[in-house]
Design a protein that fits this description.
The complex is a heterodimer of chains A (about 250) and B (about 220). With about 250 residues, chain A is mostly helical. The longest helix of chain A is centred in the last third of the chain and has 44 residues. Chain A contains six helices and no strands. With about 220 residues, chain B is an all-alpha fold. Classes of the chains: A mainly alpha (about 250), B mainly alpha (about 220). At the A-B interface, helix 4 and helix 5 of A face helix 8, helix 9 and helix 10 of B.
């Protein structure tokens, strides 16, 4: 595990792992989408719109999973000061924001035919929206602080503060919603899913997770390379060269 | 008694009083915001009295946010923050006291003023009392959570907007329970007043206990 603190080891590792996970996610998502569109039955109530759920549910799950990944990386930043943890933290934020956004958009597209409106202030929707706001604030934080190591530490503390707050926000929003809207629009305890629908969902979930892992690794690699390039440019400038003469080779 | 912390409290309050601006400006900002609302939604007294507590809470939240960037900024710029870190008093305690003093100089005036502004929002006596009590119990949570945001952005030249982005989502729970408590105080409310108020008090206590650690961790990073 400690080897992952070494950026060169990580670069070598992701060089092997990215193709594996990339192919895995492509195959799983292809199979999953085939199952979703041609095998899974339409719901007896929701009709064909139920197929949106096969994108929506994995996106919601990954939106939260990305925050967990980001929080573990934040711990890595604060406790061990890994440069790789910094990179993992930074690259998880846009991915998490993207999946949360996909979840909100697909949910809203599903809501229009089902509930007759694109948006309701339901507790779940609202919590996801607040999660998206937290992601966007963290991305803004990363962009504002120029020095990468300082940005990593500040973002790490804010990420962990958010981690403690997310359950509290979830609880308050649930309370707020039940207070204002006693008859909820949809039940949180849905009916049990039939296996013909469960299998496509599981395949899609695993496929999306592989996609997240692939994109996250690619993003970590880019971040490590970007930092090296920055450093080389600084060194070159310090040595009196023009910045563009800095040469740069990928690690083997 | 713990000498340094009492001295720090006195220092903070003295500075706030001599510089001026912080507390009274927040109250004026609150007044301006509350005045703007009827222009936007119309002078319908029934509607205003129904949404009044919510408007006052939102306005108080924004007014708190406005003053927060001063929490560590001046001390960071003139080096006092480094001196405070060098001292024997734990930074967490220093942060707690600074937040508390900041609340006394900026939050407390809002707590006093907001119920009076309830007159403009057609609030009756019970509602005004509810707004006052809920703000009194809830606004310290905003200061403690806001302190984390202020520490995260203290070294940035234009950190105010970023601080708002960071802090506002974290204020959702306090806002929800604050407005619920204020609404519960109004006549004809279905929820008992004590229930949301107790949660609000819990939020304030938890924020006061936990946030100084995050804030202190952020301030320590400044020196590195």
């Amino acid at each position: 595990m400690l080897r992952f603190a070494n950026p060169s080891f990580v670069l070598r590792f992701v060089k092997r792992a990215i193709p594996i996970f990339g192919v895995l996610s492509a195959v799983l998502l292809a199979v999953g989408l085939y199952l979703v569109f041609f095998v899974a039955p339409a719901d007896y109530q929701q009709g064909e719109t139920v197929r949106i759920m096969y994108i929506h549910v994995p996106a919601a799950w990954l939106g939260m999973f990305a925050y967990m990944v980001m929080s573990s990386a934040a711990l890595g930043t604060l406790v061990w000061r890994h440069p790789v943890a910094d990179a993992a933290q930074k690259s998880a934020a846009p991915l998490g924001a993207m999946f949360t956004f996909i979840c909100l958009v697909t949910g809203s597209l599903w809501g229009k035919p089902m509930w007759g409106t694109y948006w309701v202030w339901d507790a779940r929707l609202t919590s996801m929206l607040v999660l998206l706001l937290i992601y966007l604030a963290l991305i803004a934080l990363w962009r504002t602080i120029e020095e990468p190591q300082r940005a990593a530490r500040v973002a790490a503390v804010m990420t962990l503060v958010g981690l403690v707050n997310i359950p509290i926000i979830k609880f308050s929003v649930d309370w707020w919603n039940t207070l204002h809207q006693p008859s909820s629009v949809f039940k949180t305890t849905g009916p049990a899913i039939y296996s013909s629908m469960l299998w496509p969902l599981l395949v899609m979930a695993v496929g999306s997770t592989c996609l997240f892992v692939t994109l996250h690794m690619m993003s970590i690699r880019n971040e490590i390379l970007r930092r090296r390039l920055d450093r080389l440019t600084h060194l070159a400038v310090a040595a009196g060269d023009a910045p563009r003469t800095a040469t740069f080779e990928p690690a083997r | 008694m713990n000498g340094p912390l009492v001295a720090l409290t006195k220092r903070e309050i003295t500075i706030a009083r001599r510089i001026g601006g912080g507390g009274s400006m927040g109250v004026v900002f609150l007044l301006v915001l509350v005045t703007m609302v009827p222009f936007a939604i119309g002078p319908d007294l029934n509607l205003l009295s129904r949404i009044g507590p919510a408007i006052l809470w939102i306005a108080a939240l924004l007014a708190m946010l406005l003053g927060l960037d001063r929490l560590f900024q001046a001390d960071f710029e003139d080096g006092s923050l480094d001196q405070l870190q060098l001292g024997a008093t734990p930074l967490e305690a220093v942060v707690f006291v600074k937040c508390l003093a900041h609340w006394m100089t900026t939050g407390l005036p809002l707590v006093v003023a907001a119920p009076l502004l309830g007159l403009l929002m057609a609030q009756d006596a019970e509602s005004m009392l509810g707004v006052g009590v809920s703000l009194f119990i809830g606004t310290p949570a905003l200061t403690f959570v806001g302190g984390v945001g202020a520490a995260a952005t203290v070294s940035l030249r234009r950190g105010g907007l970023l601080m708002a982005l960071l802090v506002l989502p974290l204020c959702v729970p306090a806002l929800i329970f604050g407005v619920s408590a204020a609404n519960a105080a109004a006549p004809g409310a279905t929820v008992p007043f004590a229930a949301p108020l107790a949660v609000l008090a819990a939020l304030t206590l938890a924020a006061g206990a936990l946030c100084p650690f995050a804030t202190a961790a952020l301030l320590r990073r400044l020196g590195e």
